[in-house]
Write a structure and sequence with these properties.
Helix content: 40-55%
Strand content: 5-15%
Mean pLDDT: 77
Number of helices: 46
Number of domains: 6
Distance between the termini: 38 Å
Strand order of the largest sheet: 19-20-18-21-24-17-25
Structural class: alpha/beta
Shape: globular
Length: about 1250
C-alpha cells in the first residue's frame, strides 16, 4: 500500500492546479544552472522573461522602452519593512504603473498593466514546486508557488495529513520563517495558503494563525461535500484563474490605523493586510450584480462573476426544528470496568470501524466506543445524533430475542439503532460508510439531539440563497427598479469590510458613480468612515464626511464620482414635507448601514411644531427619512447591509432596498470561525432590583419597540422612575462591587476586556465614581492612563460630575485605540449609547448590561463580545436588569427571519460542559487520592504533582488523552467563570492544569502549544501556594539533584534511575534521549538511525509489558552511554562532525572493517568529505544531473581506496543520503 507523504500531497495539489489550466514547471529546471534557465541566480524572485512577454502582450500600444521602465520600477521596490514593500507592489499591480513617453512630438502619460484582469486567459499561469530562494546567505525552498506573468502571487506550504506532528500550525510557522529569512519573495505575495492535504486555510502577510480561514465552496453556489478535502475545495474555489485575479484586484485591503504616543507625541501608523473570506467574496459579487440589475445598467458581468448571475442553492428545509435533547442517559457504573476491558480487547472489525469515525472525522460527529447506556454496553454511540451502531458477528445469530429487547429499550430513549454485519465491515467498508453518510438519522439536514454540554450542531450548507431561508431574494426583482437588495451578514463577520469591498468594486463596474454611505448615528458614521478611510487604496479615492445639510447638498451636485458619508438625519427638510432634489443622476448608489432601522420609512405622522424656545405652536406632518432620501435622489439605487435580519412586519426596508441578496447567519459564522459563541449569565439576584423596578422594565419594553427613545419620551414618568430606581445609590454600590468581583474573577482565567452599558449618563458617572472608590488604582485623569474610562459626550447643563467625562471625537478615537490594544492597561469602559454598534475590540470578552434594551439594539450590543481573538472560546453577556425575555424575543424574530444559530447560549450550558469534562478528567484519577493536594504544604504539593504525573503516564494513552481533556475543561471553565459551580471547582481545575503543564513540558511531538503560547487567551489558574519568594526546584521535589554539567553525565543518570516515580523518570529520560538523538541525526545519519531504533524498541517492549519501568530505564541508560561514546569517538579519530558522519557511513559493515583498517577508513572519510563538498552546489539534492555526477565520484573514491566491491553500491547510497542531510552546510549556505 502506498503511504501518504508530503510529496504525494504536493503532487495532488499540482494536478488540481493543472486541471484549472496552470502550466506545471519543476522549479530546479528553470534555475540559472538548470536545463531551461529562466533565472539569473537564486536571488532573483521574478521570472523577468515571462513578465516582459506578458507586458508586451497586455500593453501593445506602449513603447518597449516604457514597458521596460515599468518592470524596473517594481524591481526597485525596496524598504526595510516587508509589508510596506508588499503594499507598494500591490498598488502598482492593481492600479497600473504610470509611465510617460514621446509620441507624435508630445509627452504622453499612460499606464502599464502587469496582469490583464479583464481577460484571465490572456495571462500566463504557472504552478512551480521546489523553488529555491537564497537571501543573505540563507537558502529556503517553499513547497509550491503560483506565478502569474512571472510574478509569485501565492505561496503554498504543505504538510502530511498522515503525520500527527505535521499540522497546519507547523505549516504556518514555516511561512513565518520564510517571511523572516527570504522576505524578497513576499514583496510580490497576494496571500499564502497552509494545508496538510485535508485542512486548508488562506491568510495574508499580517494574518495570525487564528485569521487564516478555510474556503468553503468550489463555485459559490453550494458547499463542497464533506468527502472532499478542504485543500481541493480551496484550490478549485479560490485559485481558479477568474477568482484568483478577482481577489487580487478587488478583495485585498491594507487597513491603516494611527496611534500617538502620549509621552513623545510621536504618531505611528500600523498596517494590516486583509483578504476577503469566502462569504464576503461571494456576497459582494452578488451585491454588485444586483446593483447593476437595479440601475438598469447594461454593464458586462462584473469580473469574477458568471454571465448568468447567482444560481441559488435550493436547500432542503429542516424536517423538524423540535428535536429531543439528551441531557442525560441512564448509566450503570458497575459496567465501567467491563466497558474498559472491551475497549482494550478491541476485536478487529470494531477497530477497523473505529478508525473510520474516531476524532470526529465522520461528518465532524463525536463517536464513543463501548458506551454504557442503562444496563447495556453498545459498540458505538454518536453523541451528536443519538445513534447507536452495532457491529454484529455470528454470535448474534443466537441472541435474536436479547437484541430485540435491547433495541426496544434504546429506542424508548429516543435513540436510533443501526446494525451492520461484520462481513460488510471486513469486506466492503466503503459501502458501509456511504450507507451511514446517507442514513436519515445521521443526516446533516436535521438538528441532532445532543448530550448535556454539547454545543448545538448546525447544518453544513454554507452558500445560502435567501430562498433557502424561506425569505424573498432579489432574483425575483425587475431590472431597473432601483432596489439593490439587502445583505444580511451577522454582526462580527466582517460586514463593514464587505461594504468597503462592494464600494471598491461598484465604482469600477458602474463607471465612477457617486457612492453615498448612510448611517443613523454620528458615532456609527465615524466608525464606518474610519474603516473606509483606512482602505483608500482599494477605493481609489479619499472618502469625505459630510458636516451639515449644506455640505451634503454641495457634494451631491457633482457630475460623478466620490464616496461620501452622512447620517440619515441630514435628509430632514428644513421647511415643509418635501426635501429638495439634489440630483437626478442615475449613477448614484446609496449604501445604508443597518438598513432595517425604522427611520428608513415612508409613513407620515403628525408631531408637535415647536418654536425656538421649545414651545408648542401647532402641529406638522413628518415622514420617515426614506421619503426624503427619495425626494433628494429620485433615481439613485439603494442597497442595504445589516447585521440583524429584517423583521417579518417590517414593510419599509423591502420598500426602500428590496429583498435579500445574501444571508450569512450566526450558525455559519461560528462554524467557520468568523465569530465566537456568546453566552448569557443573569446576575439580577446579585444587585437587588426592586419589584417595582422589574415591573417598570416590563412596561417600558412596550415603549422601546426596538429603538432608542427620544429625549421627549425619556421625560415620561416610566423612564424617569426606572432611571431613578436603577441609579439609586445602594443599587449602584451593589453593581459596582459585583462588577469588580466578577470581572476580576474573569481576568484570572481569561485575558481580555469588558464593557458596561449604563442606562443614563448620570448613572454612568455615578457607577464610575463607585468603582474607583473600591479600586482607586484603576483611576487616572490622564486620557492615556487608567484601567477604566467612561465614553460619552455631555452638555454644559449636565453639571460637573457628568461634564468631566465628556470626550471629543479625537479623544474617543484615542480611547478606542487603547481599548483595541490588548496590551494597554485600559480594561473596562462604561458607555450609554456609544460603541454599542460597529465598535470592534476583538479581545473584549464580557459585556455588562444595566440598561433596558431589545430587538436590533440588543442583538447589536451583545455582538461586541463575539469577535475572534486568539483562542478565545466565547463572549459573555451579563444581565443586571432581567433582559432574558427580550433576548428570547430577539431570538424569535431572528428565527422567524430564517436565521439559524442562537444569538446567545445560556451560561448554564458552559457550566454543564465544564462539569462533564471535569468528570472525565476526575475519572482518569480513579484510585489516586488527588483530593489530598488541597490541604498539603507547598513542598508536598509539588511532590503530589509529580505523583499525579506518574499516575497519568501509567494509563493507556494517558498523556495525550489527559492533555486534550484538560484543554477542553479549561476552555469551558473560562466561559463558566464566575458561575458559582465554576468557582466551587476552581481548585480542582488548578490542580489538573498544573499536571497538564508538567506533561506538556515533556511533549516533544510538536503537538503542544510551544510558541503558540502567545496565541492563547486562556490563563492557567495559579495555585498561590506555588508562588513564593523561595524557589522550589521540581527536581528537588522529585528527590533528585539538578544536573549542573551534562544531562547525560553518569551522576545524573544514576539520579534518574533512583527516582521514586518510575514513569516520570522514564518520560524525562525518553524526552532527553529523543532530543539528543535528534540533535545528532543530521550530522550522523547512520549512528542516529541505529540509536533511534534502539530507543523505539525499548519503549515498545515497555508498552508491551515485556520490560518493567525499572528494566527499560536500564536499557535507556545504556543507550545514553552509547551517545556519549559516539561523541568521544569522533574526537579520538581527530575527525570533524561531517568527516565522522562519512566515516560511520563507510564503516557501517563488518567486511569493510575487516578488509580496511581504521586508519584507511578514516582517510577515506576525509577525502569523501572534501570531494563531495567541492562538487555540491545549491539545490543539488533535487537536480538529477548533479546527483549522478556525485554518485560517480563517490563510487570512484570507494574503488580507489579498495572498498569491498559487494558493498560499494550500499555505501554509495548511504554516503549520498548523509550528504543530502547536510546539503546546506556542504554548500556553505
Amino acid at each position: 500500500m502506498t503511504r501518504i507523504t508530503e510529496h504525494s500531497i504536493e503532487d495532488f495539489a499540482i494536478k488540481l492546479l493543472e486541471h484549472l489550466g496552470y502550466e506545471y514547471i519543476y522549479a530546479p529546471s528553470i534555475a540559472h544552472d538548470g536545463e531551461n534557465p529562466e533565472r539569473s541566480s537564486y536571488e532573483e524572485i521574478l521570472l523577468t522573461h515571462r513578465m516582459a512577454e506578458a507586458v508586451r502582450r497586455i500593453n501593445p500600444t506602449v513603447p518597449s522602452a516604457a514597458q521596460e521602465e515599468a518592470i524596473k520600477e517594481i524591481q526597485r521596490i525596496h524598504s526595510p519593512e516587508l509589508l510596506t514593500n508588499n503594499e507598494s507592489f500591490h498598488r502598482l499591480l492593481t492600479e497600473g504603473i504610470k509611465v510617460s513617453y514621446q509620441k507624435d512630438g508630445q509627452q504622453r502619460g499612460d499606464l502599464v498593466w502587469l496582469i490583464d484582469f479583464n481577460t484571465p486567459e490572456n495571462n500566463d499561469f504557472i504552478v512551480a514546486n521546489q523553488f529555491t530562494v537564497v537571501e543573505d546567505g540563507v537558502n529556503k525552498r517553499p513547497d509550491v508557488i503560483l506565478f502569474v506573468n512571472g510574478i509569485p502571487l501565492v505561496v503554498i506550504e504543505l504538510k502530511n495529513a498522515a503525520d500527527e506532528n505535521a499540522t497546519i500550525k507547523s505549516a504556518f510557522r514555516q511561512i513565518e520563517t520564510y517571511k523572516a529569512v527570504i522576505p524578497s519573495l513576499f514583496t510580490y505575495n497576494a496571500f499564502t495558503i497552509i494545508s496538510d492535504g485535508l485542512e486548508a486555510r488562506a491568510g495574508t502577510l499580517s494574518s495570525g494563525m487564528s485569521r487564516f480561514m478555510a474556503w468553503k465552496s468550489a463555485d459559490g453556489k453550494e458547499e463542497a461535500s464533506h468527502l472532499v478535502s478542504q485543500m481541493e475545495t480551496l484550490i478549485n474555489g479560490m485559485l481558479n484563474k477568474e477568482t484568483l485575479l478577482d481577489l487580487v484586484r478587488h478583495f485585498i485591503v491594507f487597513e491603516k490605523s494611527k496611534k500617538e504616543d502620549a509621552k513623545t507625541g510621536v504618531t505611528t501608523i500600523s498596517t494590516v493586510k486583509k483578504l476577503a473570506a469566502y462569504h464576503q467574496y461571494y456576497a459582494v459579487n452578488r451585491a454588485v450584480e444586483s446593483a447593476i440589475r437595479a440601475t438598469g445598467h447594461n454593464s458586462p458581468p462584473v469580473e469574477g462573476w458568471s454571465q448568468t448571475g447567482v444560481v441559488p442553492n435550493p436547500r432542503i428545509k429542516e424536517i423538524s426544528r423540535a428535536t429531543k435533547n439528551y441531557f442525560s442517559l441512564p448509566y450503570n457504573p458497575k459496567l465501567k470496568e467491563r466497558a474498559r476491558e472491551l475497549r482494550k480487547a478491541g476485536n478487529l472489525p470494531e477497530v477497523l470501524f473505529w478508525n473510520q469515525v474516531k476524532n470526529k472525522q465522520f461528518k465532524g460527529f463525536d463517536f464513543d466506543r463501548q458506551k454504557i447506556i442503562g444496563n447495556y454496553i453498545v459498540d458505538f454511540y454518536c453523541a451528536n445524533c443519538g445513534v447507536v451502531v452495532e457491529i454484529d458477528g455470528s454470535s448474534h445469530d443466537n441472541k435474536v430475542e436479547y437484541d430485540a429487547e435491547r433495541d426496544a429499550y434504546l429506542e424508548s430513549l429516543g435513540l436510533t439503532v443501526i446494525h451492520i454485519p461484520v462481513n460488510d465491515v471486513m469486506k466492503q467498508m466503503s459501502s458501509v460508510m456511504n450507507m451511514l453518510y446517507d442514513h436519515p438519522a445521521l443526516s446533516n439536514t436535521n438538528k441532532p439531539p445532543r448530550l448535556s454540554g454539547t454545543p448545538p450542531q448546525e447544518g453544513n450548507f454554507v452558500m445560502e440563497s435567501p430562498e433557502s431561508y424561506g425569505v424573498a431574494g432579489v432574483k425575483s426583482q425587475p431590472k431597473g427598479d432601483r432596489k439593490g437588495g439587502v445583505v444580511w451578514h451577522t454582526q462580527g463577520s466582517g460586514k463593514s469590510l464587505s461594504m468597503v469591498f462592494f464600494t471598491g468594486k461598484i465604482v469600477l463596474a458602474l463607471d465612477n458613480p457617486t457612492v453615498v454611505v448612510i448611517t443613523d448615528r454620528n458615532d456609527l458614521d465615524d466608525q464606518l468612515f474610519d474603516t473606509f478611510a483606512s482602505s483608500t487604496q482599494l477605493l481609489r479615492q479619499e472618502p469625505k464626511q459630510i458636516e451639515n445639510r449644506n455640505d451634503l447638498k454641495e457634494k451631491l451636485k457633482v457630475a460623478s464620482g466620490g464616496v461620501i458619508f452622512t447620517t440619515i438625519q441630514k435628509f430632514s427638510p428644513e421647511e415643509g414635507n418635501v426635501y429638495e432634489t439634489l440630483s437626478e443622476r442615475e449613477n448614484i448608489v446609496v449604501i445604508a448601514d443597518e438598513a432595517h432601522r425604522t427611520q428608513y420609512g415612508f409613513k407620515a405622522k403628525t408631531v408637535d411644531d415647536k418654536d425656538e424656545h421649545g414651545n408648542v405652536i401647532g402641529k406638522k406632518t413628518v415622514y420617515g427619512f426614506a421619503k426624503y432620501m427619495r425626494d433628494a435622489l429620485p433615481n439613485a439605487t439603494y442597497i442595504g447591509f445589516t447585521g440583524t435580519p429584517i423583521e417579518s412586519t417590517d414593510v419599509n426596508t423591502p420598500a426602500v432596498f428590496g429583498n435579500y441578496i445574501d444571508v450569512y447567519d450566526i450558525a455559519q459564522a461560528v462554524e467557520d470561525g468568523a465569530t465566537v459563541r456568546i453566552y448569557y449569565e443573569s446576575r439580577l439576584a446579585k444587585v437587588n432590583l426592586s419589584e417595582e423596578g422589574k415591573k417598570l422594565v416590563e412596561e417600558l419594553d412596550d415603549e422601546l419597540d426596538g429603538e432608542e427613545l427620544t429625549e421627549t419620551q425619556k421625560a415620561k414618568a416610566k423612564w424617569t422612575q426606572l432611571e431613578a430606581l436603577i441609579g439609586s445609590e445602594n443599587r449602584i454600590k451593589n453593581v459596582a462591587n459585583d462588577i469588580i468581583q466578577h470581572f476580576g474573577q474573569r481576568q484570572e482565567v481569561f485575558e481580555g476586556k469588558g464593557m458596561i452599558v449604563a442606562m443614563s449618563r448620570r448613572i454612568a458617572a455615578d457607577l464610575y465614581e463607585e468603582i474607583i472608590k473600591l479600586k482607586p488604582e484603576w483611576h487616572s485623569d490622564d486620557l492615556d492612563k487608567g484601567v477604566i474610562k467612561v465614553v460619552m459626550t455631555s452638555s454644559s447643563s449636565d453639571g460637573p460630575k457628568i461634564a468631566k467625562h465628556h470626550t471629543t471625537k479625537q479623544q474617543r478615537r484615542t480611547l478606542a485605540d487603547r481599548m483595541k490594544d490588548p496590551d494597554d492597561e485600559l480594561k473596562l469602559v462604561i458607555v450609554r449609547d456609544m460603541w454599542l454598534t460597529g465598535f470592534d475590540a476583538p479581545s473584549m470578552h464580557t459585556l455588562y448590561i444595566d440598561k433596558p434594551m431589545k430587538g436590533h439594539n440588543l442583538m447589536q450590543a451583545i455582538a461586541r463580545v463575539n469577535r475572534v481573538y486568539k483562542d478565545k472560546p466565547g463572549g459573555l453577556v451579563v444581565d443586571y436588569l432581567g433582559i432574558a425575555s427580550d433576548l428570547k424575543k430577539a431570538l424569535s424574530f431572528y428565527s422567524d427571519a430564517g436565521g439559524k444559530g442562537d444569538p446567545t447560549i445560556a451560561q448554564a450550558q458552559a457550566v454543564e460542559l465544564m462539569l462533564e469534562k471535569l468528570e472525565v478528567v476526575s475519572q482518569m484519577y480513579s484510585g489516586f487520592p488527588y483530593e489530598d493536594y488541597f490541604q498539603a504544604e507547598t513542598g508536598q504539593k509539588l511532590s503530589m504533582i509529580l505523583a499525579a504525573e506518574e499516575h497519568i503516564l501509567g494509563l493507556e494513552d494517558g498523556k495525550k488523552r489527559y492533555i486534550n481533556e484538560v484543554t477542553a475543561l479549561s476552555k469551558a471553565f473560562a466561559i463558566a467563570v464566575p458561575h458559582e459551580q465554576a468557582m466551587d471547582v476552581k481548585d480542582e481545575v488548578s490542580f489538573f492544569q498544573a499536571v497538564k503543564a508538567r506533561l506538556a513540558k515533556f511533549d516533544g511531538t510538536g503537538s503542544g502549544r510551544t510558541d503558540e503560547e502567545i496565541e492563547t487567551t486562556i490563563r492557567q489558574v495559579i495555585d498561590q501556594a506555588l508562588v513564593s519568594e523561595q524557589v522550589i526546584d521540581v527536581f528537588d521535589a522529585a528527590g533528585i539533584k539538578k544536573p549542573d554539567i551534562s544531562i547525560l553525565s553518569e551522576d545524573f543518570l544514576m539520579e534518574l534511575k533512583g527516582m521514586e516515580h518510575k514513569n516520570v523518570a522514564l518520560e524525562v529520560l525518553k524526552k532527553l534521549l529523543n532530543d539528543e538523538i535528534k540533535a545528532r541525526s543530521k550530522k550522523n545519519l547512520v549512528k542516529s538511525k541505529s540509536l533511534k531504533e534502539m530507543l523505539e524498541n525499548s519503549i515498545k517492549k515497555y508498552h508491551n509489558k515485556i520490560l518493567t519501568a525499572a528494566e527499560v530505564m536500564d536499557e535507556l541508560i545504556k543507550l545514553s552511554k552509547e551517545i556519549v561514546n559516539m561523541d568521544s569517538e569522533a574526537k579520538k579519530l581527530g575527525l570533524s562532525d561531517f568527516e565522522y558522519a562519512f566515516y560511520t557511513a563507510v564503516a557501517n559493515n563488518d567486511s569493510a572493517k575487516q578488509l580496511m583498517q581504521q586508519d584507511k577508513l578514516r582517510e577515506l572519510a576525509v577525502i569523501l568529505t572534501e570531494r563531495v563538498k567541492q562538487n555540491a552546489s545549491i539545490d543539488w539534492t533535487i537536480k538529477e544531473s548533479v546527483r549522478a555526477k556525485l554518485k560517480v565520484i563517490i563510487k570512484r573514491t570507494l574503488r580507489q581506496y579498495g572498498y569491498p566491491p559487494d558493498m560499494q553500491k550500499l555505501a554509495t547510497e548511504t554516503v549520498l543520503k548523509q550528504a543530502e542531510a547536510i546539503a546546506k552546510e556542504l554548500t556553505g549556505i
